[in-house]
# Entry
Amino acid sequence: MKLTYLYHSTILLEINNIKIIIDPFLSKNNFFDKKLLYKYLNIKIDYILLTHAHYDHICDVELFASNNKDVLIISNYEISNFFSKKNIKSYGINYGSFVKFPFGKIKYTLALHSSSFNDGSYGGNPGGFLLHTNKGNIYISGDTSITYDMKLIPKFGDLSLSVLPIGGVYTMDIYDAIIASDLLKCDRILGVHYDTFENININKEKSIEKFYNKGKKLILLNYEESIII
Ligand code: NI
Ligand code: MN
# Structure
């Protein structure tokens, strides 16, 4: 499984040649090189996973969908319905069981956050994704504070990596993410949702050191940088 960081919470996952984009927020991201947007728009994307309806997670869905006619959105029921009405193929799930897809099985997990569209309309419950594949298991929490429910996640299987927001204010910060990694029994964390807006700036070196001092690894990637799980 290859994971490429495209800033904020946008991630490109490649599992056995299946390409999945998570929470696409590129075109309106001031920090993103627009030339790169076109590079990614020209890649054939098979699935779009959306954690919640906030603008900084869904704003480029239609852009990617217009370039990928067969793309399937996987999100909560309300977000899926919203995009179905725009004639984009969607699969709505909810907090519940694992659901099987060709790349593995997905469980929509609890997130303590909110989920409205930009116009204020209801975007269903915010969530994250627990993804079990034959290339390893990862947990993508989405925007959330720390929750005690994170303790349930490793009961379904050991995690190779957890993708957690670390910028604070709207989500967990570094201190919370360290505790979350204890609950998740996962010492390898990819940090997301930081440095995009002024009030979620972090000190990268100090953040990595704080994890290191607890015997954990915080991975912070540059634009387009990839890791193999
Ligand atoms: Ni949000
Ligand atoms: Mn967000």
